Recover the amino acids of this structure.
């Protein structure tokens, strides 16, 4: 609400215009001078009108939104992102900066509308790209385009939170349709064969065979597997506690982070056979540490390098490539074990809420969206079993 103060023959109108990008309250002032021939009643009426007009102008973004998008985004990285967001998220957003700033960085926040964002989407999706040898690259995928808009939208959401704007222009744009591609995953028979082949691997590859065995049985993400520590295993109750991930960036190297979401912190029940494999692996690692002596660097991780430090993000992947080439197994990426685990759960009639909990998704919608096809197949089998029971009963 505007406040009015008389100062000699003029009046000062003060209005709060929200907060700046540092979270400080912004106060706007306006001086109004009445005409000499105005009566006191006319002055009072016009003064109230000027106060209302000035307050409306401030609340609609007057002055406060004159900041350009690039300036605001760079300040957002400093005061918010660096302290609130995960390292990988910040890194992904930094990768979006160059193209976003080129397109809209010079524009004022209050001048960017849905048409501006839509034009950027069209240009991005149709951009001609070439590699270092001049060969044309495929256009950006709908997922990549969505990542760019996610970055822009996040900036506008923060501006709204700071009461600098009242609307996010990204909410009204038409996004490119997601391309549905067939998800590659191993069959049950392939995983069973793989586990048998793991038994024939050399001692040097022991940790990798345990890594992929756990991946198949638990559906843990790669970072969650690499982040497991021996203290996370409840030997009495056959449980694994997921409370951290191991990540990597060029700037930080290997570092420890919290799981992807709060829902990703979870307990997973393991079968006795798998618990025994972990006990055997623990005994093997303890023996290896004893041989290495002071050269071993303790970090309590299940999966380590030869000196005891956390295993790199690519080590297990490289082993698996060699393993598949050697054995003739079909090669699919590490994440496919997570999809395999989910498909087994769903095909065995496990409800979506339980599958969500096992996989550590933040909501059941995520699980349904990712594994819609598997749930549809399970539903068909369920309906077939109902029909089979009814028809069998009728026949008897």
């Amino acid at each position: 609400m505007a406040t009015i103060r008389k100062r000699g023959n003029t009046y000062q109108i003060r209005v709060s215009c929200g907060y700046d990008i540092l979270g400080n309250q912004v106060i706007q002032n306006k001086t109004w001078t009445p005409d000499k021939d105005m009566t006191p009643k006319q002055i009072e009426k016009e003064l109230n009108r000027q106060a209302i007009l000035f307050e409306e102008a401030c609340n609609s973004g007057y002055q406060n939104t004159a900041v350009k998008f690039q300036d605001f985004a760079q300040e957002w990285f400093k005061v918010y992102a660096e302290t609130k967001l995960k390292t990988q998220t910040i890194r992904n957003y930094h990768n979006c900066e160059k193209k976003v700033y080129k397109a809209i960085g010079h524009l004022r926040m209050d001048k960017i509308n849905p048409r501006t964002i839509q034009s950027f989407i069209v240009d991005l999706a149709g951009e001609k790209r070439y590699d270092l040898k001049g060969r044309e690259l495929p256009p950006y995928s709908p997922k990549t385009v969505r990542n760019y808009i996610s970055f822009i939208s996040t900036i506008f959401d923060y501006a709204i939170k700071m009461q600098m704007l009242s609307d996010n222009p990204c909410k009204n744009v038409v996004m490119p349709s997601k391309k549905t591609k067939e998800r590659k995953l191993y069959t049950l028979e392939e995983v069973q064969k793989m586990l048998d082949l793991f038994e024939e691997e050399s001692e040097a590859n022991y940790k990798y065979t345990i890594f992929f065995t756990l991946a198949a049985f638990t559906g843990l993400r790669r970072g969650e597997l690499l982040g497991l520590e021996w203290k996370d295993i409840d030997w009495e109750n056959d449980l694994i506690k997921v409370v951290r991930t191991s990540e990597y960036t060029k700037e930080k190297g290997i570092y420890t982070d919290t799981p992807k979401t709060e829902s990703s912190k979870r307990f997973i029940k393991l079968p006795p056979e798998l618990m025994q494999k972990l006990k055997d692996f623990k005994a093997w690692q303890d023996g290896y540490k004893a041989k290495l002596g002071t050269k071993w660097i303790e970090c309590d991780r299940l999966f380590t390098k030869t000196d005891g430090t956390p295993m790199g993000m690519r080590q297990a992947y490289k082993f698996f490539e060699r393993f598949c080439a050697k054995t003739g197994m079909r090669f699919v990426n590490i994440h496919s074990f997570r999809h395999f685990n989910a498909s087994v759960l769903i095909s065995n009639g496990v409800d979506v809420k339980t599958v969500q909990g096992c996989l550590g998704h933040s909501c059941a919608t995520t699980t349904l969206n990712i594994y819609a096809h598997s749930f549809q197949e399970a539903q068909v089998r369920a309906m077939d079993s109902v029909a089979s029971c009814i028809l069998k009963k009728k026949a008897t």
Remarks:
- The CA atoms of residues 228 and 301 lie 6 Å apart.
- The chain has three domains: 3-66, 69-172, 188-331.
- The domain at 69-172 is CATH 1.10.150.130 (DNA polymerase; domain 1).
